[in-house]
Amino acid sequence: MTTSVVSIVYVNDAPAAARFYGDLLGMSPSFETPGYITFDLGPGADLGLWSGQFEDLSPDVPRTSEVCLAIDGGRPDELNATFERWKSQGVTILREPHDAGFGLTFLAADPDGNRIRVAPKG
């Protein structure tokens, strides 16, 4: 049996969220329905965007979990380049690059207020 870990992010509009995440990740969805879209992130890992579970999500509601995009090598120049690219694309930045003890990291949000951390791959 093949096992995959799917991180599900609840969104109001799955196609709009897929465009947002597709731009950030530089990839196209691997599976699409009107309310559930996934991205194949590599062996055993998928990102799912689901609009069928929670309707009318508000960005004003605090989110306590985050999707973490781990950068291979975790070089500060790579992380800073990602930060600058996202900032220029109009991505909401919640916290600019800073050292969090495990390396340089920054925090952003998707249009539904879900938190996205970029950090070095451990």
Automatic annotation (TrEMBL):
Gene3D superfamilies per UniProt: 3.30.720.110, 3.30.720.120
Entry superkingdom: Bacteria
Alphabetical list of InterPro entries matching this protein: Glyas_Bleomycin-R_OHBP_Dase, Glyas_Fos-R_dOase_dom, Glyoxalase/dOase/EhpR, VOC_core
Residue ranges constituting the VOC domain according to the UniProt record: 1-121
Name this polypeptide is given: VOC domain-containing protein
Native source species: Streptomyces plumbiresistens
